Amino acid sequence: MSLRRFWNQIQSRLAPVPEIDAGLWLSAIQAYPFLQALPLADQAKLRALAALFLQRKQFHGAHGLVVTDAMAVQIAAQACLPLLHWGTPREALTWYDDFVGIVVHPGEAVARRESVDEAGVVHYYDEVLLGEAMEGGPVMLSWQAVDDSRHSMAEGTSVVIHEFAHKIDMRNGAADGCPPLPPGFMGSASTRAARALWHAAWEPAYEKFREQVIIAERFGGAQPWLDSYGATAPPEFFAVACEAYFVNRAQFAQEFPTLAPQLAAFFEPGRKG
């Protein structure tokens, strides 16, 4: 490592955390009841975390969209919420150090996909997206979807938290619905034991939820509260669960009593009970 690079790293660690204008910050969190409901101490921590996030990330508007400061702060606050209890802002943001760019579309985005069937035939199709997190790459968000989740906690949805939950999941490789678990997670003695503990709760919960969605969609059963998109794959179930956990924790704990303690242990290390 060169002396200049070493010195730059030292300066980065010692530099003061930037600040977000108080009026801009208050306007942002007041738009999202689950942010406004945070204790004042947590709001202050989140503000510092979001400020550093904004300093390090680059926002790009697609199709002529101008990403305003207000829009960027609203996205940053939600993106940083899962990191709130993971140390200092600089320590916590290492979870998002595999990318810089955040692309914001005015509405839905359409991605060209391809798949190969059992016969080896390649099929091309268009997929409509409200957001997408790419392993080692940028995050894409629909501003319409971000804006639609304002002022309500009832549905337990946040496309921002959803996509950044994928980023957290991807810290140990391709998203699989099990993020890197901390040492001693819920009393486990090893990484292997921690993952076994995680899967013992998440696999049956996913299968039960998937069955509920199938019954609702095919046979007219009651629609589950959690976003049915979570039934498409375990990584999506994890991301949907994370957004619901942060947006409406009480309802999530009622719907998924075996998963809420695991998310609490993961996102709030050291929490008791």
Topology readout:
Layout: H1 3-14, H2 22-30, H3 33-36, H4 40-56, E1 58-61, H5 69-80, H6 89-92, E2 101-105, E3 109-116, E4 122-129, E5 131-133, E6 139-142, H7 143-148, H8 159-169, H9 191-219, H10 234-247, H11 249-255, H12 260-267
Helix pairs in contact: 2-5, 4-5, 5-8, 8-10, 10-11
- CATH class division of the largest domain: Mainly Alpha
Give the number of DSSP strands: 6
Largest sheet: 4 strands, mixed
SS strand fraction: 5-15%
What value does the average pLDDT take?
89
> Helix count, per DSSP?
12
C-alpha Rg, in Å? 19 Å
Which segments are poorly predicted (pLDDT under 50) over 5 or more consecutive residues? 4-12
Which structural class matches the secondary elements? Answer: alpha/beta
Distance between the termini: 45 Å
CATH superfamily of the largest domain: Glucose-regulated metallo-peptidase M90, N-terminal domain
Assign an overall shape: globular
Q: In order across it, which strands form the biggest sheet? A: 1-2-6-5
Q: According to CATH, what is the topology of the largest domain?
A: Cyclin A, domain 1
Q: Which bin fits the share of residues in helices?
A: 40-55%
* Helix/strand order: HHHHEHHEEEEEHHHHHH
Our count of domains comes out at: 2
In CATH terms, what is the architecture of the largest domain? Orthogonal Bundle
